[in-house]
Amino acid sequence: MTIKLLGPTWHNCDGMTRRNFLVAGAFGIGGFTLADLLRAESDAGIGSSNKAVINIHLDGGPPQMDMIDLKPHAPVEVRGEFNPIATTIPAFQVCELMPKLATVADRFAFIRSLVGSAGRHDAFQCQSGFDNKSLTTIGGRAAMGCVVSKLCGSTDDAAPTFVDLMQGRPFVRNSARPGFLGPAYKPFRPDISEMFARPLEDGMKRELAALGSNHATSLSLSGDIDAGRLSDRGHLLDQLDRVRRNVDASGMMDAMDRFHQQAASILTSGRFADALDLSQISDRELDRYTASTSTVERCTTAEDHLSMRKFLLARRLIEAGVRVVSVSFSDFDTHSSNFQRMRHMLPTLDHGFHALVTDLDERGMLDDVSIVAWGEFGRTPTINSKGGRDHWPRVGMAMMAGGGIQAGQVIGATDRTASTPVARPVHYQDVLATLYHNMGINASRTTIRDTTGRPQYLLDQGEPISELV
């Protein structure tokens, strides 16, 4: 691949308890918040961590009753065509199309009662925990990866804190966005379209065009500029632009500065570019993340058997120092031919889940890397006249693994048609709070100042899932 780059106990991002006396003292200094302390420690180079998150978006809304919440005794118009199979968790079953997942189910937590969906066809809620309308007057909420970049990232890092590999619907709708944090905290978005094809519908092409040229991040210098010249130019720009930077209200000058510094670190290190280069990987490792070729006719917007190599890229990026990676897998928007499409997609996803979790475990990384797989909502219990399932925001599903969670659990339950939670509802923000917790960040106590200077909590209602942490 050629990369073209023109009182309480507080926890910091490394999961270690931080000096309580500093925290206590900090709150005695007018307005100094925990976020300020985190930034100060980051600036001072205090603490390091391997804690990371892989956020997998199941683009379109996965059908919970065809994956992890099968209802074999429901009416035929609800239960569908698939049979349940036993797993390594007693009395818990998954779809017959996911036999590899069944063998490692005890390393996952399965959430069957995900609630609070905003009902939108994008990944923003899975990225931030919020509806896209929240705080729009000041730029909107920030994705978790952007928040982690703000709290834990440094321009001296050899890899960006947050990398967005999402394609398809969530990619073109710009779900992993920095909101009120400003453009300095945008994710890095390498163009992986030549590696992973995900055909776009006409509407998505129009959305992509509307985003302009900034939808992907360039990560290489032109051939006649080396790192030394980059450094000299940076020094000159710093001198010339100091006044403009001080009066720039849009944040673009800060974003340019931050990108310039980050690019210099990345280019001189090479670790990040190497992580994205699949040509350096052995055939044996590639094969591990390559699903069997499907014999089922593939929908034009569904991904192929090579798509699980995105999970391999995510693992390699984390090894290179990235803290949050967002990945997508398409296309679960099954308004028609739901069962045929699942026969193609679920075995591929099954292969990928098994490869990622076992690979991380063998490398000793699983306790440090939190994995979540979910979508924007569930699907309707009743099968429509086209053999499909429609949007169902009332309840959905999520799967979590790694990060030190208490795995081997099934959380929540739905009624006999998988249409309504009847036990232990879990909100999107609860999942995000758990991910933050695994990163060593207390989302209910940590604040970041918005563009008006007002402190905003990372989440406004979520709590870490008590059964998992």
How is the topology of this model organized?
Layout: H1 20-26, H2 34-43, E1 52-59, H3 76-79, E2 84-86, E3 93-95, H4 99-103, E4 108-115, H5 124-128, H6 144-152, E5 162-164, H7 168-172, H8 202-211, H9 227-240, H10 242-247, H11 252-269, H12 271-275, H13 283-288, H14 309-319, E6 324-330, H15 338-362, E7 369-374, E8 378-379, E9 391-392, E10 396-402, E11 409-411, E12 413-414, E13 421-423, E14 426-427, H16 428-438, E15 447-449, E16 455-457
Parallel strand pairs: 1-6, 1-7, 4-11, 4-14, 5-6
Antiparallel strand pairs: 2-3, 4-10, 7-10, 8-9, 12-13, 15-16
Give me a quick take on this structure.
The protein is α/β, with parallel strands linked by helices and 469 residues long. 32% of the residues lie in helices and 14% in strands. The protein has one domain (20-457): Alkaline Phosphatase, subunit A.
Q: Report the CATH superfamily.
A: Alkaline Phosphatase, subunit A
- Categorize the overall geometry: globular
Distance between the ends: 39 Å
Low-confidence stretches: 1-11, 15-35, 37-48
Count of helix runs: 16
Q: What portion of residues belong to β-strands? A: 5-15%
| The number of domains | 1
Main structural class:
alpha/beta
CATH architect. name: 3-Layer(aba) Sandwich
CATH topology title: Alkaline Phosphatase, subunit A
Average residue-wise pLDDT: 84
Tally of DSSP β-strands: 16
Global Rg: 22 Å
* Helix content estimate: 25-40%
CATH class term: Alpha Beta
The biggest beta sheet is recorded as:
8 strands, mixed
User: What kind of oligomer do you see?
Assistant: single chain
